[in-house]
Amino acid sequence: MNYLLKMQKISKKICIIIVIFLSTPLFYQPKAQELDATVDVDVSAINIDIRDRLTNFKNDVQNYLNKTRFTDENIVNDVRGKPYKIKCNFSFFFRTATGIDSYEAQLVVSVQRNIYKTENFTTVFRVKDETWSFNYVKGQSFYHDDLKYNNLTSFLDYYAYMIVGFDDDSWEPNLGTVRFQKAQNIVNLAIANSDGKGWVDNSSLKQSRSVYPAELLNSKYDNFRKAVWIYHFAGMDSLQYTKKQALEKIAEAIEMIGKIKKTEVRSFIIKQFFDTKYLEIAATLVDYYDKSIYRKLMDFDPDHSTTYDEYAKK
């Protein structure tokens, strides 16, 4: 059953009834189709005489991300009636260049998802990748191949699958599993066919690309993923219909995640969630009747205590 198509046929009154019934999972499949990616490139850190080699990099990467099909679903956007695409931004910061075609760069990825039946967005994933080494030749062709490792396209594919997976999980519980598994497969290919730099790290204090799919595919985080769905579908999507119940669901999701945090203290995926969402959470819960939620947030996410304390007083 396609939820987006179904919901277009029912009244706002029925929508409210469904929102109230959100404690029981609904089965629907508004799956993501493709990416709507924008790419930014900063080459200020490398020599001027090398920058010419990278003049096509932005367009090459943007075209690859936007023209490659990472899923086989065709979903219509609930507001605009056009194919559903995930808004995301890739910001590349080149650090060094060696030889003719070897580079090191950092990447910041930010992903937004539509709030149901509105023109508004909520950020679902934001991460900084500090260690990426790859080869690029001006004018080269980009090929998508899930079975063959390439230090440029496989890196892009990994983030594409993570993006689609996070978007999927926000619409239906555990819907992103197939995408996270594909991201994990790329990690395995990278480890087998490269020095593993950036893909895996033995330090428990430093994130690598391997940690995100590994945590998300671990049954210990099943309730985290369910909470992500509750936060978005029962919370953010539903604020426009039944605000009181929606705020309760957001608070419920936060407490579910906080409970997991107590046992998985060094979880990277939970840290990523709060780093991405803390300001939205703080601002949204201003109208929540139980202000003790802010004290709990300070405990769950001490990195952003100042923000929570500020909003608790509003």
Could you please describe the fold and organization of this structure?
This protein has 314 residues and is α+β, with helices and mostly antiparallel strands. The protein has a domain at 218-314. Helix content is 45%, strand content 16%. The chain contains twelve helices and four strands, in the order H-H-E-H-H-E-E-E-H-H-H-H-H-H-H-H. The chain has a four-stranded mixed beta sheet with strand order 1-2-3-4, with helices on both faces. Helix 5 (153-171) runs antiparallel to helix 6 (177-193), helix 8 packs antiparallel against helix 9 (243-263) and helix 11 runs antiparallel to helix 12 (305-312). It starts with a helix and ends with a helix.
How would the blueprint of this fold be written?
Layout (H helix, E strand, L loop, with lengths): L2 H5 L4 H9 L13 E9 L5 H4 L5 H11 L17 E14 L3 E13 L6 E15 L17 H19 L5 H17 L17 H6 L5 H14 L7 H21 L4 H17 L7 H9 L4 H8 L2
Parallel strand pairs: 1-2
Antiparallel strand pairs: 2-3, 3-4
Helix pairs in contact: 5-6, 8-9, 9-11, 10-12, 11-12
Radius of gyration, Cα only, in angstroms? Answer: 20 Å
Number of helices: 12
Q: Could you give the count of β-strands?
A: 4
Largest sheet: 4 strands, mixed
Structural class: alpha+beta
Question: Can you give the mean pLDDT?
Answer: 88
Output the helix-strand order. Answer: HHEHHEEEHHHHHHHH
If strands are numbered along the chain, what order do they take across the biggest sheet?
1-2-3-4
Q: Shape, please?
A: globular
Low-confidence stretches: 1-32
